[in-house]
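Blinded run. Sample ID left blank on purpose so nobody reads anything into the name before looking at the predicted structure. Input follows.
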Amino acid sequence: MISGEVSTLVVLPSPLRGRDGGGCQPRWLRLARKSTHGVLIGLILGAQGVCAQEGEVRWRVSDQDDTALLVTADSDATDNFGSPLFHCKKGSGIVVAEGDTSDDLRTTIAAMILHDKDPAIVMVPDDSSAMGVEAFTGMTGWRYRFQLSATGPAFEQLERTGIFQFKLDDSSVRSEFKVGLENVRKFQELCRRPGT
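Blinded prediction complete.
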């Protein structure tokens, strides 16, 4: 089902809940755990403490109590992060992908709503684990969100090459970012179901 408002097709625990952890923990991360929209609010507010590799846009992973977050950003204290972003409950085996929609994807979503057509996502490479597509408006405009396996072909491709792509009806979405792939691997390991 696609709708013009925030909806939840699959109920998952908030990936941002938890208690304060140790290490280099920016203020944005503590705020982000308090609500789903906290990711955006927290990144906008910035941080008191700063971790390594400031100024370099790269994949960055946050490892908190029972959740993990993967974003592209130029620091741990910024609102300058890219699309898509990923989050999971650690050890669940399921990753939630979320990102900004292009004009083409928005047009496709509008046509699907108009024709009462259920969204069917096709991952590249083919990955039957992708499900639960939803479109919603957020602070930065229209966004998409869906689930996929942390060990499926699509996420394996992201981990190896930095490429994440899928099709929704006739619209293709492709992102490629290779700096910091070691953090994609770390995120994948955090999300992986034990024994897989």
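Unblinding after everyone has recorded impressions. The first helix runs from residue 27 to 32.
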